Amino acid sequence: MAFSGWPEEALDFYDGLTADNSKTYWTANRAVYDELVLGPMAELVDELGAEFGDTKIFRPYRDVRFSPDKTPYKTHIGAMVGSGYVQLSAHGLAAGDGMYVMAPDQLDRYRRAVASDRTGPELEQVIATVEKAGIGVSGRDTLKSAPRGYPADHPRIGLLRYKGLVAWQEWPPAAWLGTAEAKDRVVTFLRTTRPLSEWLADQVGPSMAPARAR
After folding, report:
1. Calpha distance 139→164 (Å, rounded)
2. For the segment 81-126, what is each residue's pLDDT rounded down to a tens digit?
């Protein structure tokens, strides 16, 4: 089936899960999740994949092993679409793109590219264009001072202090969420932020560090 949005019952499901994050609630409402939450997300990412790359829908279960919060279920559904991310919750629809977490070798390449007089201004221009479209761009886990080896008065010190770089946009619930317009908004977001993801892919790329054994 073609993607046609999420019905209001999908948001009601997450309202209920937020109020009662228990196996009892989940079991009683699993059919609602499968049909009205997961089903539309699967249709959406299937349609987006051809243009934006590989897709993956995240599991609804939280990893509580190292968290003081032992509630078992996520109060949103999220999916990767290429380098982008799509999320639905009781608060509405959201989309992101970029690199939320950088491994040490990625962070080193990112800072070198930001500091460069060639690639640094390119990133500034990309961010300005994305922000002009009404999409926020921000860093993750920002350092309070300049990273080691970089001057505190560097013209792009703000960008140098970031440990991640992400574009993010949220849309509160409205009638359009139950229509194909929801896909249109995500497509517009991913096309608008594509220059940012391309800059990160070209200048930072994947981590080269060997994977740790599990």
Report:
1. 5
2. 999 999 999 999 999 999 999 999 999 999 999 999 999 999 999 9
pTM of the model: 0.93
Nearest to 204 by CA among 108, 116, 122: 108
Contacts of 18 (CB under 8 A, 6+ apart): 75, 90
The 3-class SS string of 55-114 reads: EEECCCECCCCCCCCCCCECCEEEEEECCEEEEEECCEEEEEEEECCCCHHHHHHHHHHH
Query: How many alpha carbons fall within 13 Å on the CB side of residue 123?
Result: 30
Give the DSSP H or E segment for 166: strand 165-171
User: Which sequence spans correspond to the domains of the chain?
Assistant: 8-203
Which residues does 166 contact at the CB level (< 8 Å), separation at least 6? 96, 97, 98, 99, 100, 137, 138, 139, 140
157-183: per-residue pLDDT in tens?
A: 999 999 999 999 999 999 999 999 999
Half-sphere exposure of residue 33, counting CA atoms within 13 Å on the CB side? 19
Nearest to 185 by CA among 38, 3, 37, 50: 3
pLDDT tens-digit series, residues 16-32: 999 999 999 999 999 99
Q: Which helix (H) or strand (E) holds 165?
A: strand 165-171
Instruction: Name the CATH topology of 8-203.
Output: BirA Bifunctional Protein; domain 2 (3.30.930)
3-state percent breakdown (helix, strand, coil) of the chain, nearest 5: 45, 15, 35
